[in-house]
Design goal:
Length: about 220
Amino acid sequence: MTKSITSLSISMILMASALTATSAHAVEGLSANAAASSNYLWRGVTQTTNSAAVSGGIDYENASGFSVGTWTSNADLAENMTYELDVYAAYANELDNGLGYSVGYIYYSYDNDADVDFSEVNFSLSYDAYSITYNTLVDSDGGGDLGDDTYISADAAFEVSEGLELGLHIGSYDFDAGGDYVDYGVSLSKNGFTFALSDTDIEGADGDLNFVISYSVDFDL
């Protein structure tokens, strides 16, 4: 399992590099990404039972600030699950005072037998190195209606030396059915590599401190 994931991730990254080098007719606003990671964490909780993940996506953004995209990764957080496929759309802009804002929608889909698809809307404000985001459930195959579950996060990113970025994160997940938790993390990123520490206040294995190493590439299409 680990060997096949590693081979696939190397192939994706090599293919991404080749496309970047040979693309002669780029489409304005169209881009793609590929990544390999030692673990897939989402809001502080592993989605791959602490195993490696390979992911990739395609995004389109026009000058008006409207964007759409899709992203996929291996995942096995539930029975009969092997992958996650997300589809999303957003609008982002910035006011004259430098305050940025965005509103978006995202649909998270998984294997049909897993029966855990759900969707969210999100709202975000940013200024300089700081941002805060509010996410709320729209609907879910597992039960739940608009506004039942919410996740609020605050993030900051600083360039501590040339090309080296320090990231700070804290988030709070509030579930209508209980089981609320807080997650927090710190990361260092440079030249596509990211080293991150992430933890939660969840008791048990899901709340363990996680150290994640990842590499990602982005390229225009």
